[in-house]
Amino acid sequence: MVDDAITDEMIREKICQMFLESTKKSKKEYIGIEIEVPIINLNKEEVDFDIVHRVTESFKNHFNSFEVEGIDYEGNVYALRNRENDDIVCYDCSYNNIEFAMGKEEDLFTINERFGEYYHFIKEEFESHNHTLSGMGINPYRKYNNEIPIPSERYLMLYNHLKSADNYSDSLMYFHDYPGYGMFSSASQVQLDVPYDDLIENINVFSKLEPIKALIFSNSVLLEDNEDYVCFRDNLWEYSTHGVNPHNIGMYDIEFKSINELVSYLESLNIYCVMRDGIYINFPSMPLKDYFNTDSIVGECYCKGSYRDIEFKPSLDDIEYLRAFKFINLTFRGTLEYRSVCTQPIKDSMSVAAFHVGLKHKTKELEKLFFNTPVFHDCYNSTELRKLLIRTEIPSSIDKDELYGLARDVLDLAKDGLKERGLGEEIFLESLYKNVNERTNPGKRILDSLKEGISLEKIIKDYGDL
């Protein structure tokens, strides 16, 4: 052990400080939205990164409130921030995927207006070069793309971690063959301010919502490779190096009784990276407490075009780099981040946030719905049910009338919650009601359309229209 040993109590106190303190402060309940969108070269060739960089420059020149936030090692801009409202337009993992991270607001219409303005401009710029954007959770032209990470500290480290499955040869875990999945997989994430006293109930109840979200939002079809899933995205995370410790990904398989139990869960996570002097160091994923019980660790850092070994000592502040990728994450900002939903057809982008905002204060009513629905307690737990409902075909053992009836009841609750806000935001739920009424989701529509002879190019256009 190091002389100044880091005790379990110190770890716990640091976790509480970093994850929980800001949830105790009285503040407005803001909404934050991140929408990732694949870039598609309509020539059926790899995305031309020179065109990406020209579009970025055009955007910066047109929206002069945006300032450079990130520059890669080759001098290209990969992130822009709006100094007036903290909107960020950036590239996620690679230059094959663009992200709109909208600054926090109190209402969805304000966010939607700004998102629409940015998206419309960027899409037109790309289309002038025969590229486009589309609201599909997996890039439909991924097989043409050059899967290389953005040459920056964070994304080089992340890709190095994801392609390091050989480091776990002693594990019985199955790893898929898509370590570059972050370069073709796109999500729609929501962050909400949830007060300290509501955290446990919110996490518990929203965890039970995950099967319903799979039912109505799934939109990640791995065309040609595996069309048995309409949300293959779940598998991409679970069977990657992020999933070495199952507590780091997916759903919570326990129902928390207290904040102490939540903190204990956070203590059970694995850590796989830290920073020293502005440089990311990646090392084989290990339990947090094992990490702090180790005198020194050898990891890898990127230096001048290659990776080299580096030895370092753990520091309590490294908890800042504790990265979980749960379907519901408690963040350092004191928000809950809901991250299990695929990118939606662009015109329906606000449906994800509307769903979560509408249900945020309906947890007791949701709990009653789940209790009164047999499929949720007689047959499967929530994790098992979601694994079934991300597939293209719902098993015959599940009562579809009961399932879709529950989904409609959930949407009605979300609608009530939005109506109580008095802003008219319930309009953003219309696409979800259509999914329930037609017993489908965007992923199933892609597959059904292809079977009906509709071209993939037409689907790309339809899913990309604003």
What does this structure look like?
With 466 residues, this protein is α+β, with helices and mostly antiparallel strands. It is built from 16 helices and 15 strands. A hairpin with a 2-residue loop joins strand 11 and strand 12. The relative contact order is 0.15. The mean pLDDT is 95.
Key features?
36% helix; 466 residues; 9-stranded antiparallel β-sheet; two-stranded parallel sheet; alpha+beta
* Class by SSE composition: alpha+beta
Outline type: globular
- Tell me the number of helical segments per DSSP (H or I, 4 or more residues long): 16
Number of strands: 15
Poorly predicted ranges:
none
- First-to-last CA distance: 58 Å
Q: What level of helicity do the residues show?
A: 25-40%
- The mean pLDDT is 95
The major beta sheet can be summarized as:
9 strands, antiparallel
Strand content: 15-25%
Radius of gyration in whole Å, from Cα? 22 Å
In short:
The chain is an alpha+beta fold and 466 residues long.
Give the arrangement of secondary structure elements:
Elements: H1 8-19, E1 31-41, H2 49-62, E2 66-71, E3 77-82, E4 88-91, E5 97-105, H3 108-127, E6 131-133, H4 153-162, E7 188-193, H5 199-208, H6 210-217, H7 233-238, E8 249-250, H8 259-267, E9 270-276, E10 279-287, H9 288-292, E11 297-303, E12 306-312, E13 325-326, E14 328-330, E15 335-338, H10 351-359, H11 363-371, H12 382-389, H13 400-421, H14 430-438, H15 442-451, H16 456-464
